[in-house]
Design brief:
It is a single chain. The chain is of the alpha+beta class and 410 residues long. It folds into 2 domains: 272 residues, L-amino peptidase D-ALA esterase/amidase, CATH 3.60.70; 119 residues, Ubiquitin-like (UB roll) (Roll). Helix content is 31%, strand content 25%. It contains 11 helices and 16 strands. A 6-stranded mixed beta sheet has the order 1-7-8-9-10-4, with helices on both faces. Strands 14-13-12-15-11-16 form a 6-stranded mixed beta sheet. α7 crosses α9. The radius of gyration is 22 Å and the shape is globular. The termini are far apart.
Length: 410
């Protein structure tokens, strides 16, 4: 990135911090909890808004995923509104579910005086239960009436399911003397294993760029962030990451010059910050864990090892118990499908070496236990096979994960 471009700095704010965005949220009765916010609207006032989206690769995709994918195509990336609900995924609901998603977009578009193809829809919650349109459609006029710049924090709350905390990140920078912002929110605590985003995330910016540029930048940012977070190895039916660019800052992101790398840095930072928040807030989790692989032959090799370790229930339960059972880590690396010499591998947690050249490093058990009791851990595995690296964010498995998921539907 050119030194002429200022750095991105975190600031206090929300989805409406970038110029041109208004939001609203209501309690529509979709969630079991009475008066819980569960329906929200995000809207860009700028007719020049561009949009991009990345969605689940699960073949069992939810109705809102089908509708939003098609609307992005039909509008040629000119979407201006997002309607999102929590409490019901509207997945595996057949033609009825598709009609609910389409009708939601149609009614919202009429209220906002835009085309139906300019409205994206997203849902999260229980799979296989019909989403009652009577809980959504009558609330859309109220959502439209209440659109303000002051309601964005409520939107971050309205998209949550088993999350313990809202997840928000806002950055500010400058381009040609103009202030530019990127803001993002996300939800996700379980059913998190990315073959896209395995979550819901909505991003706003007042930078100006074409829809193809925004799509490319979002795809790249997702690959380096949401695609590198896992809680439990399950890929959702509803994964949706959407970015809207109002262009109202008048700061243009142009192919082929330093503005592209500058904006990519900010967008990736927002997505990575949200991804780490998701891993930290994993269902029942007590620890944020970064799995870092170095010394692999290829990037694919490094990625395979990182994911195998991050998804291993035995590794994750050992971490929950602060047990320095490095053998489980080496075992997971061994079944990842990557070729390496086990007699050369080093394994460490934070700065404490557990395994050197494939055998016990002679560490102090009590010291290792204290290290693993920390709330943020770095598991580093050096394969000594090459120069490629990879990083994945995950969490530990506690008894609370089972409790949450044993009765999620009922």
């Amino acid at each position: 990135m050119s030194r002429a471009m200022p750095k991105w700095e975190p600031i206090e704010g929300d989805l409406a911090t970038p110029l041109g965005f208004r939001t609203s949220a209501v309690a529509a009765g979709i969630k079991k909890t009475r008066d819980a916010l569960d329906l929200a609207l995000i809207f860009s006032d700028s007719p020049a808004t561009t949009a991009a989206g990345v969605f689940t690769t699960n073949r069992v995709a939810a109705a809102p995923v089908f509708v939003s994918r098609q609307n992005l195509v039909n509008s040629r990336g000119r979407c201006r509104a997002i309607v999102v609900n929590s409490g019901n995924a509207n997945a595996c609901t057949g033609r009825e579910g598709l009609q609910t998603a389409e009708e939601t977009a149609r009614v919202a578009a009429k209220l906002l005086a835009i085309e139906p193809s300019q409205v994206l829809v997203a849902s999260t919650g229980v799979i296989g239960v019909a989403l009652n349109p009577d809980l959504i459609l009558p609330q859309l006029p109220l959502l439209k009436e209440n659109l303000t710049r002051e309601n964005a924090k409520a939107v971050a709350q309205a998209i949550l399911t088993t999350d313990r905390v809202p997840k928000t990140c806002v950055l500010r920078s400058e381009a040609s003397g103009k202030a530019v912002h990127i803001a993002g929110i996300a939800k996700g605590a379980g059913m998190i294993h990315p073959r896209m985003a395995t979550l819901l995330s909505f991003i706003t910016t007042d930078a100006s760029m074409g829809e193809r540029m925004l799509q490319n930048l979002l795809t790249e940012a997702v690959e380096d962030s949401f695609n590198r977070v896992t809680v439990d190895g399950d890929t959702s039916t509803n994964d949706t990451a959407v970015a809207l660019a109002s262009g109202l800052s008048k700061a243009a992101v142009i192919p082929g010059n330093e503005s592209r790398a500058w904006f990519a840095e900010g967008l990736t930072l927002v997505c990575q910050t949200l991804a780490r928040m998701i891993a930290r807030d994993g269902e029942g989790a007590s620890k944020l864990v970064t799995v870092e692989i170095v010394g692999a032959r290829t990037a694919l090799d490094a990625d395979r090892v990182a994911r195998a370790i991050a998804n291993s229930p035995l590794v994750k339960t050992a971490l929950a118990g602060a047990d320095p059972n490095w053998g489980r880590i080496l075992c997971a690396a061994g079944y990842s499908g990557t070729k390496f010499d086990p007699n050369k591998v080093d394994v460490s947690v934070n700065d404490l070496m557990l395994c050197r050249k494939g055998v016990d490093a002679g560490f102090d058990e009590a010291a290792a236990h204290r290290e693993l009791e920390g709330k943020e851990l770095l598991l580093r595995v050096d394969l000594h096979a090459g120069k490629a690296t990879a990083r994945v964010w995950t969490c530990d498995f506690t008894r609370d994960y089972v409790d949450i998921n044993a009765s999620y539907r009922s």
